Structure formats: C-alpha cells, structure tokens
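Why should sequence recovery work at all? Because a backbone constrains its sequence more than one might expect. Tight turns favour small or flexible residues, buried strands favour hydrophobic ones, and helices have their own preferences. The token representation captures these environments compactly. In the example below, the structure is given first.
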C-alpha cells in the first residue's frame, strides 16, 4: 500500500499521483508535492485536558497536584503558569513556575486559563 498524503481539503484517503501533482477523486482538489511536504511539517496540535488547543505564550492552570521529580515539593492544583512554550516530546510544555523555576509539564495536566 502506498503512503500518499490525505487530501488537505476534504481529508480523503483516496488520493492518487498524476505526474507531479496529487489528486483527490472525491473533491477534485489538486496539489503539488511541495505543498504536501509543507503541510506535513506543521507542528502537531497540543491540547489541554479539556481539548482546547494551546499555543506559545498562553496562560494555563494546573488541574492536579504534581510532584516535582527530585524534590519533595508539589505544584498545587490551581497554580497559574504564564507564557508557556510548546516543545516536542512527552512533556510538551516548557515554562517557569514561580517558586519552582523552569520545568516541563504534560499538557494533559493543565487547562487553558
């Protein structure tokens, strides 16, 4: 089975290649290989615990007490974290928390403020 990209317009999986273009038989959309490469380079969407899409610079609130690894400290529920930065990896939020310093959080433990 080939690994052709889905249609960027209707997300159909039944695309085919015609010379240097990809074609969608369902909606008739045509796009080039360069456009397909650009769309695959887009950042993955990072969502909070409630499904809201997070972006760099957002303010989030911690929804669960989080133990700080290597310390006996705990980041309490309701702690606001300002100016987050999204990064790749398991812990996808990079931030600074007052009283704790720089750390990484998982998006599943925060909600957008």
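From this structural description, the recovered sequence reads:
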């Amino acid at each position: 089975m080939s690994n052709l990209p889905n249609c960027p317009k209707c997300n159909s999986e039944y695309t085919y290649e015609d010379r240097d273009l990809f074609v969608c038989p369902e909606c008739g959309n045509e796009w080039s290989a360069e456009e397909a490469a650009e769309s695959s380079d887009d950042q993955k969407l990072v969502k909070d615990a409630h499904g809201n899409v997070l972006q760099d610079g957002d303010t989030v609130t911690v929804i669960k007490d989080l133990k700080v690894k290597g310390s006996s400290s705990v980041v309490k529920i309701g702690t606001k974290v300002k100016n987050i930065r999204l990064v790749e990896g398991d812990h996808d939020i990079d931030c600074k928390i007052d009283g704790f310093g720089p750390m990484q959080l998982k998006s599943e433990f925060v909600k957008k403020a």
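A few observations help interpret the result. The CA atoms of residues 43 and 68 lie 28 Å apart.
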